[in-house]
Amino acid sequence: MVDRRRLLAAAPLALTGCTLLRPVRAPMLAIEDRAPPTRGPRALLVFLPGAQEVPADIVRQGFVRRVRERALAVDVIVADAHVGYFRQRVVLERLHVDVIAPARTRGYDAVWLAGISLGGLGSLLYASDADGVARPRVDGVLAIAPFLAERDVIDEVLAAGGLRSWRPPQPMAERDFSRRLLTWLQGYGRPDLQRPDLYLGYGEADGFAQKNRMLGDLLPRERLFVAPGGHTWAPWLQIWEAMLDRAPLPRVV
């Protein structure tokens, strides 16, 4: 099991720099945009912004509009899962209690998560944690330039030849949060293990590109998206459009 509470506290320190912390609210704030009525299946997509963004930025940049342009039968919730929730180690709890669990009562046929950078990490953590009764399994994750691990851990994995051949040191220390998360992600290279569908994208000049590439090596080619650019809106939007065109999300009928 991933030691998620420790990872949640550590990851923001690597990502946020001088980000201004905002209040941690319960319930967590969110922006919701519902799809037109449909006679067919419906899905829920919960989007987590990056460390430097707020939900309104995701809407303003056109991520929700691109969902609507494709006539997808997908209700979108952009959750304000900001750095403070990670630092207080409550982001998974608040996402479940305040956002995902109430939405599930509407009877969605599928639940997907999406996120950029820190939001990508949060999406992967929630997906990895959603195997029990408290948090039902999600159907898929659309991860854009997600933070995965610290530099020294990435170097260790690369020296071993990648995630397929890497073996974490045993016994793993309780505080070894990055290696615990990567161990779960290794399951994407094992067909005998069940994992939510994962679609991964990053800019080819992104500072996280090498880290993301080693995870991408475990995925089918059709689930990996690389765009020109770095850790900025232009490649993220290009990747987002490609993901929406490829992922098995229901359409309005």
Features:
253 residues; alpha/beta; Rossmann fold; seven-stranded mixed beta sheet; 10 helices; 7 strands; globular
What's the short story on this structure?
The chain has helices spanning 4-15, 55-60, 63-69, 83-87, 91-104, 118-129, 151-159, 177-185, 209-216, 233-246, and strands spanning 30-33, 43-48, 74-79, 110-116, 140-144, 197-203, 224-227.
Describe the secondary structure blueprint for this structure.
Blueprint: H1 4-15, E1 30-33, E2 43-48, H2 55-60, H3 63-69, E3 74-79, H4 83-87, H5 91-104, E4 110-116, H6 118-129, E5 140-144, H7 151-159, H8 177-185, E6 197-203, H9 209-216, E7 224-227, H10 233-246
Parallel strand pairs: 2-3, 2-4, 4-5, 5-6, 6-7
Antiparallel strand pairs: 1-3
Helix pairs in contact: 1-6
How would you describe this protein?
This protein has 253 residues and is α/β, with parallel strands linked by helices. The chain has a single domain, classed as Rossmann fold. It is built from 10 helices and 7 strands. The longest helix has 14 residues, at 91-104. The protein is globular, with a radius of gyration of 17 Å. Helix 1 (4-15) packs antiparallel against helix 6 (118-129). It has a 7-stranded mixed sheet, sandwiched between helices. The chain has helices spanning 4-15, 55-60, 63-69, 83-87, 91-104, 118-129, 151-159, 177-185, 209-216, 233-246; strands spanning 30-33, 43-48, 74-79, 110-116, 140-144, 197-203, 224-227.
